[in-house]
Structures are given as structure tokens and as C-alpha cells.
Amino acid sequence: MANDNLDSTALAGEDGIRWRIRGQDVKPENLTDDSSTPAPLSKEHFKKPSRPRLESRRSSAMSIAQIDQVLLDDNVDEDTYGVSEVRDGLFDAIFLKPLYYNVKNLLERSKATLPAQFDKSDPLAPEYFISRQFHQLSTLFVRIGTTRQGVRLLKTFLAFFIAYCLCLTPATRDWLGRYSYMIVVSVILNHPARTVGGQIEGTILTIVGTAIGLGWGTVGLLLSTSTLAARAGYGGILAMFLAFFMFALACIRAFFIRFYQAVLCAGIAIMFTTLAETNNKNVPWIKLRDYAIPWLLGQAISLLVNVLIVPDAGARALATALHQAFNTMQEAFNLLDQPGGIRQRRQLADAFVNLSEAYRDMRINITVSRFRPDDVEKLRNKMQAVIRALLSLQIKPRLLDSSPSRQSCVVIINTPDSDTVDEQTSRKNTNATAVGDSASDDIIRNVVEPLRSPTKDLLHSLKEGLRCCDAVLMDVSGYRKYLGPSDVVSSDLAAVRIRTKHAIATFDVVESTILDSNNNPVSSIHDPDVVKCLVFARRVRETIATVEALMDQVASMQRVPDWPRAYLPSYPVWKAIHRTNAQVRHDRGGVTAGYYHKTFLEIAGLLDKIKSLDYRPTSRIQDEQGQGGTPAKLNRPIMDPDADIAPASRKRKLRYKIWKALYRLQGLESRYAFKVCLVTSLLSVPSYLPDSHTWWNQYGAWWVVVVSWAVMHPQVGGNAQDLVTRSGVAILGATWSGIGYYVGGGSPYVMGVFSALYMAPMLYRYTISSHPRSGLVGCLSFTVISLNLQERGGGSSPAAFAAINGLAFFIGTAVPIVVNWVLWPFVARHELRHALSSMLFFMSVLYRNVVAKYVYFSDGKEPTPEDIQRSEILEGRLREGFVRIRQLLVLTRHEIRLRAPFDPLPYSGLADACERFFDHLIAVRRSALFYNPSYIRDDPLAAEQLLSYRRDAVAAILGNLYILAGALRSKRKVPLYMPSAAAARKKLLVKTAEVEENMSKKAPPDDIKKHKEWSDIYSFSYSESLTGCAVQLEELEKYTKLIVGAQGFDDEFQDEDEDADHEKHGR
Q1: Fewer CB within 10 Å, N- or C-terminus of the chain?
Q2: Where does this protein have coiled-coil stretches (predicted)?
């Protein structure tokens, strides 16, 4: 069967498979004794498979010859211990000789798969840290003066300085009250370095959050002083109110990041109300006014500065994302002639994710733009379709080069850069060249030469169309002058569309002529080089179809009136509460961990719809007629996620909801809430003790609780470097405040100069750099301490006041980090291992779904457009999952490991192999839409004969993925003997060839013409990808064993010398 064929060009060099396939000494006749149960394989079976005629229907001759090159090795060790387990009707696993590999070569190959950030020096090295600071300082002024970062910093600093100067003015400070510095704190927390829509939303959220916090605290104060008994235990009442409220706020902060600003301000307000100036006698209600008025004025200042000074309506970020995506796609075409390009593929994946993020940012906030949100959604879908098509493109075949000499076609679909450093590559390219040289001059003249020029015209039209779309969109957005492209690029989209249609028409004519020509021998369809060229040309044709659809969408957007319009938030509410704008994501910190957690939750939710389907296996033998004389129907598995499963009772639904709620309470959100309650409750104990009232209120020590709440993150707690940095800026802010007050003798002018010198870089760190939480601590430390010194007039000892306040900020910064180290710490390398385990399991579910839905049609019908759309959505989420895994891998560089440095190479290699497995699955799904082997699927006898072989081929892959995922999750060694997916596929191919030959005898003579249909061409790419899954499975096994180890029969008896010897020999 042609759908189970494969290409040895992509496989012959893969180390390991040819060393693993071993047979058992059984007679080949056993294969035909039982059509439903596959027999064990013999060595002769692998070496001498049956060879059907090339004229047979959908011949598998080329496929078997190619897989022989992969599985066969004449230098096989005869002393093997292969075992075949035969169980009728169940999975018959084949266990071959264990895989041995060279660890050094494997790790060397993995270096090419590391993210680009690993090209830099170790960030924890002291020499790198110092050099990096000097480098960033030298380029800081260039970035501020030439990019939008300077505008954002200017707006933030201007709003801060206005509020700070108001506090330095004695008359204004007296009117604002004792807590006048809250006007500056309000500006810092909702700074104007954001879009207008984000600023408006932030203003509303911060005001509402503050009101809720003050209201809840007021209720607690009233109850704590309502009666004599309450006054006696007022501390316990306030502590209970604070703990309950903080637990609720922490849960909201962790579950719904959209309300981050509201819950942050509500927490600060409740801490101020219940911890500042509290006693059991009376409540100084004036403090609520002194807090609320400055807070409102601070929000007003930020909003006015944001709206009046270089306002950003949100359209620029969208235009930037679109322009960068087009640049990435054009660069992908420039590298089409080069092998590898793994980082370019990763840039395409990043662009895919960034487009979705830019669209969401537009829909969740008020936006003023020339683009309508509905048009942007369609544009995003069209651009992502182009990116998907580009990711499926292989390297340009050499047979399509303009050189008149005959050249070989060395095309490897989805081949990583790491192959260039592998010694196996030379053997693979040698085999590929040998196969390519077999193409006859007649085939090149009749097939390749006519196809060369139209394909090049299509590629030129692709590049031209993308450049033109970029120019048109930047013209419409109004940012072409600032973002590009240059004026040299034409924006005449109509002319480009006409040229593209002509190129497509020419290609279609040539393609039809080649396929319908009688001058081509039937064997040409089985030549690997020719087929690859045809597949590549067809892929280009599919890609230009997506670009043509993109041009149509851009043309429709070009006709829309070009005046800007305001669009209110329109993102679905149940999704919007889990999303927020870009600046809040930045200020919140822990962007990578937050993205990783959310992305994998979404993937798990989508896959749950597949896993929870009611599966009923297809009957292998039709039942006899029922009592009514009607034949019994075959049981089909329900594969439609929208299909109604057996309704559950109300009691079962209630039990499930209770279980789901309790299970969710075990997640990181509840753990984070517990840590928040623990830290805030313990740090606030002195405020309830009579002996500590004086110094607690005198030095404003309640800020220790506020700082701890501000810097605690639901996922990331911080490492040793974060502890040093955040504590350092807290002490630096206190020190700088004391120095400024001492130098100027309390002069507001001197303090204003000192604030400008200190806060400009600190605000940059908070609002723009990748270290926002340390910047926030530095800003709050200087602001609170310096303005408290001004309000107190220095007091008896300004130095002591600054030192004690600095100590409070130091404790508030250090305690949350230490608590996060002790209680449920976030360790990037552990999360990376869990993420890879989850991704392997996701691959198993996706593989099962693709095979069932697109390959064997186990539900009895072809996939619908809705099925394809759902598959593309799921694949997009999984693509984003790989992006998050690479970001986690980068995070591991910033963690200090006491035992030994963390080795990222096997993890990077495993992630890359898993992504290539994913790419093969996508290729299978895309090719299966065009290649439909219904001749066997519709033949009950043929389907019955292949059922058990197909079962074993699929089950071997699923079983391996389950085992590897479980080993990674539990950090358990991988079994030494694993079911051989390659051997199971070999059995399927041999049996398929036998079935094909039997069916070809009954086929009409003119049926050979069907070899010239595109379904035959796609069978090559389709089966190549299926076999690629088996190859990548072996790569997954290698890297997983490198990470967690492999089991052995005598593990408990091995000593360190034996382990060292094994390591020396690369086992």
C-alpha cells in the first residue's frame, strides 16, 4: 500500500535503526498462515521481502527497497536476543537488540539545537555580568535616543517628577496629608508608558481595587473597635480580615491576570488600612482621606501625561508585529536554498505566536486604529496559514536549479541544523546522491526541465506578494515611514496579483501536461529525486495559494476608509480575564513562566476533548444478521468532539464538579495564595502587639508587608541573583535618599535633583528592561523614604530613619524569595523536564488523532473543514508550546545548581527531536488530505488483512511515547528493551506489498494510469513522514535515556568503575 511507503533518503543516515533490526529464525511462510495476526520476523524476511511488479496498483516496490537500506545491515551481530510476543487480537510488540549510541557525538549534534541565547557567555559568570552592565550602559543612550523606549521613559519620568515635585512643595504636601507620597506611588504603579486603552483600563482597575481594599479594611476596623471584647482582641480580628482578603486576592492574581492591577492596589490598600496607625482605642479616619486623595490625583496625572504627550493608541504595536512577521517570512525564502535553517524555522514559529499575541492585545483594550478588529483577525489567520505553509517547505531541490548539468536532489524534509555536524550525514548525503544520479536524462528532460521555470516564477511571485502586502499594510497603518519597508518596494497590489495569477496558471498547465504525458515511463513516478521535485513544486503551489488569499485580504483592507476609529474591547470575556496587555505582562514579571503555564493549560484543554471521546473499536469481522434479518453494523469510534456522549446524571455531574474544584485547589494558584497568607500574616504580627506600636508607626514599617506582596509572583519566586539584585536596589534607594537629604540639608531642590539622577535609570529598569520587579523595589524604596524624610523634617536622626526604612524594604524583598525557595519552588530545569514529558504525551494523543481521523478514517468518513480547522488550532497551540519550552531552556541558565552545572544539551536535543516528530505529523495530515488510499480501505478483505499490522505499527509508536513521557515525568529510568516501531512498520510494508500484488492481479489494465495522479506523488511525502515519526522516535529514546538513564539487568550490581567504563565507551 503506497500510503505506508517511505523514503530512505531521509532515513538511511539515521544512526541506530540499522543497528537494532534483528530477526528471528522463523519461516517466511508464517506470514501468510494467519492474515489477522502478524508472525514473528526472520532475518531473511528483512533481507528478501516480496517484490511486487512496478505495474501493480499503488506499488510499494520503491518503499520496500528504501526501507531495506534503513533496516538492513550485512554486518549484523548474529548473537541477538530478539523476542517476539504474539497475542491474537492484541498489540504484538517486537523487542530487538538494545540501541547503543555514542554519547559524545549525540551531545555534539545537540549543540546546534540550542536557542540563540546560548551563544552568549554564562550570565552567572562574574566577568560576564560586569561586561554586560558596561555594554548595556554604553548602548542605553542610543536606545533611548533612537527608539520608542525614549518616549516611554520620558512620559514615565515626567509623570513621576510632576507628582514628586508636588510632594516637595510644602503647601501641597500639607494639603495632601501625612501620606502625600501615595500620589507618587500611584503614578509608579500605573505609569503612563502604555497605550491609551491600557492606561484607561489601568486607571479604572487601580481605583476600583483601592476602593475595595479601603472598604474591606474599614469594615475590619469597625468590627475590631465595636465592643470591649472586640477591642481586647482587635489584633486577631484585623489579622483574620487581612488573611482572608489576601488569600482571595492571591487566588484572583494567580487565576485571572487581567485583574493584576486591581488586586495589587487592593492589597496595598488593605495593608495600609489594617496595619498603619492601628490601635484598640480609636480609629484615625483621617488616614483614609490622606490615602485616597493622593491616589486619585496620581492616577489623574498619569492619565493626562499618557493622553497629551505622544499618545499611543495601540496601532503601532500591531503594525510592528505585522511588519516583523513579513520580514521573517521573506528571510525564510532567502534561506530556501540552504540546508538546515533550524533557527529560521524557530523565528517563523515565534512570528506565528507573536501574531496571535498582537491580535489579542488589540481586542482586549480600547484601540484607535485604521484596521478593524474583524479584518485583523482574518489577516492573522491568512498570515499564519502562510507561515504554516512555509514551515512545511523543504529545501529547494537541486534538480530545479538552472544549471544545465544533471544534479542530484538532496532534499530532507524538516531536517535540523544538527545533522550538519553528525558523522551520519555524510552517509545520508551519499545515499541521497546515489539515488539522485539514477534519474535518467529522459526523466529530467520530460519532467524536471518543464517544471523548473514555472516553479521559479512561483517563488518570485511569493516574495513579491509578501513584500507588496507588507508595503500596503504599512501604508494603511501610517507607520511605513517609521517601520518600513523602503519606498523602493511597490505597493501596487493589483499588478502583483495579476502577475501571480499568470504564474499560477502557467504552472498549472505545465503540471497537468507532465502528469498527463505519455512520454514518461511509469517508473519515473518511483524515482525519489523526481518525486521530491514534484512534491516541492506542489508545496510551492500550495504556499502561493495561501499568499494569494493573503493578498485578497490585504486588498479588501486597502479599500476600507483610512481614517482612524476607536474600537472598544471585544475579546470574549471568559478568555479576556486570563489575558492582559503587553505592558502589564511586563510589569508583572515572570513572563516566560506565565506564558508556559497558560499555554500548556490550553493545550491540555484542547487534547482533553480528544482523550475523553467514547471510543468503541471497529469490529474485525462482521457479525451475523440479527434476529430481524438486518445485518449488524460495524461499531465506529466517535471522533467528533462535538458529538454527544452518553449523558451523565445530575449526581455524577455534581460529583465531577466537586472533584474538579478540589483538584484545582491543589494547583499552583492555591499554593501561591497560601504563601502570600503566610508571608503577609507573619510580617504583620508586630503591628498588633502593643509594645511595637511606637516604632512600627514611627518608621512606617508596614511597608515591609507591602513590598513582600508586590514582588511575590504566582510562578517565579526568584533565584540567588534576584535576591542580591532586589535587596541591593532596596538598600541603594534608602542610601541615596539619606545622602540626598544630608547633602541638601532637607532642601527640596537638592532632593529633586537627586530624584532625577536616581529615578530615571530605575524607572527604565521597571518599565522597559527585563527586570521589572527589582526596578519596582528601587522606585518604591527611594520614593517612600525620601518623601518621608521631607515630611518629618528629618527627625532626630535622618540617617537612622533611612537605615531602618531601608532594612524594612530589604526584609520585605528577601523574605518572599526565601519562602519561595522552601515552599514549592519554581525550578526551571524541573519544569522543563515536566514540559517535555507533557509534550511527549501530547504527541501521542495527536498521533492517535491524526492516524484515526486523516489516515484510516476510523469513524467512517473523511475529515470535514471543521475538523481541519480544529487540527490547525491545536497545531498552533502545540507550536507555541515548543516556543515556551525553548524559553524555559533559556531560564535554566540563570539558576545556580549546587551539585553540578546543568547540562542543557540533552534537553535541547529532546525538544528538537520532539518538534521534528511534530513536523512529520503535520506533513502526514496535510498529505493525507490529497492522498486517499480508499482502494484498500474500502476493500473489507484487504483492510482485514492489514488491520493487525497497522495496529502494531501505531501501537508501537504510542507505547514508546507513553513510556518515555512517564519516565521523564517521574524521573525514572527508561527500559532497556523498547518495542521496535521500525520493525513493526517493516512488517506492515511487507504485508502491504503482498496485498497490493494480490489486488493488482484483479485490477483492469488501464488502472496503471492512476499512478500519474497527485495521490501517488503525495504518497511519497505522506509515507516519508510516517516513517520519519518512527525515526524521530528513536531520537526521542536516545535523549530521554541521556536525561534519566536506561535500565539494565544488573543495575544493582554495577559499581562506579563499570559506570565509568560504560561512559567512556559512549554507551
Answers
A1: C
A2: none
